[in-house]
Design goal:
The structure holds 2 protein chains of 2 kinds. Chain A contains no helices and 12 strands. In chain A, the strands form 3 sheets. In chain A, strands 2, 5, 6, 10, 11 and 12 form a 6-stranded mixed β-sheet that branches. Chain A has a 4-stranded antiparallel β-sheet with strand order 3-9-8-7, with no helix packed on it. A two-stranded antiparallel ribbon of chain A has the order 1-4. Chain A is globular. The termini of chain A are far apart. By secondary structure, chain B is mainly beta. Helix content of chain B is about 0%, strand content about 50%. In chain B, the strands form 2 sheets. In chain B, strands 2, 4, 5, 6, 9, 10 and 11 form a 7-stranded mixed β-sheet that branches. In chain B, strands 1-3-8-7 form a 4-stranded antiparallel β-sheet, with no helix packed on it. In chain B, a hairpin with a 6-residue loop joins strand 4 and strand 5. The N and C termini of chain B lie far apart (about 35 Å). The chains are: A mainly beta, B mainly beta.
């Protein structure tokens, strides 16, 4: 079945630093891939998604490219802000398509 | 705005005292989920409703039950909360169109404390 592996945190960066959070997956076929973000004390919200190989999802300055050659969907941002401090989850659908498999989550801490 | 609403945001209960958490949605989505999340770990799916069909995860304790009286509402009942049930409970919804998008929309969560 499908699975996802996400880099462990916490990741601590200074403001304006470059961010990469690694996510790799194994899957049958080419499922959609997602990044969700959870700000402190809140529920999860969709950050970005990509529905097919070579697609780039982007939102709020974050980007991730669906790479089938390396089975990866790494999250990047060129210049992080304190307000980006949150937990980030990589996810992909189970074979059923409407249920999600979640990565372990990466806590991001941005220091001013 | 269309959204997923959870009440209450914070719930304190005593060990063994039944508690009910509620979730409502204005998105008219056909699938509703209940997750348990501890300490910023990945959310753990407890069960979900696909339309009226209830789907329980194999490792969800019998202590957890759910009801979905209509499309908009879903409840999580914890019959006898233990200390290990203290967690954030997240409700989510999605519209399954068979397209494999599986985008889920989450409520803000209910943080349960068990004394």
């Amino acid at each position: 079945g499908n699975s996802v592996t996400q880099m462990e945190g916490p990741v601590t960066l200074s403001e304006e630093a470059f961010l990469t959070i690694n996510c790799t997956y194994t899957a049958t076929g080419y499922p959609s891939l997602f990044w969700y973000v959870q700000y402190p004390g809140e529920g999860l919200q969709l950050l970005l998604k990509a529905t097919k190989a070579d697609d780039k999802g982007s939102n709020k300055g974050f980007e991730a490219t669906y790479r089938k050659e390396t089975t990866s969907f790494h999250l990047e941002k060129g210049s992080v802000q304190v307000s980006d401090s949150a937990v980030y989850f990589c996810a992909l659908p189970m074979d059923s398509n409407y249920q999600l498999i979640w990565g372990a989550g990466t806590k991001l801490i941005i220091k001013p | 705005d269309a959204m997923v609403i959870q009440n209450p945001r914070y719930q304190v209960t005593q060990f063994g005292k039944p508690v009910t958490l509620s979730c409502s949605q204005t998105l008219n989505h056909n699938v509703m989920y209940w997750y348990q999340q501890k300490s910023s770990q990945a959310p753990k799916l407890l069960f979900h409703y696909y339309d009226k069909d209830f789907n329980n995860e194999a490792d969800t304790p019998d202590n957890f039950q759910s009801r979905r009286p209509n499309t908009s509402f879903c409840f999580l009942d914890i019959r006898s909360p233990g200390l290990g049930d203290a967690a954030m409970y997240l409700c989510a919804t999605s519209r399954d169109l068979g397209l494999g998008l599986a985008v889920q929309f989450f409520g803000p969560g209910t943080r349960l404390t068990v004394l």
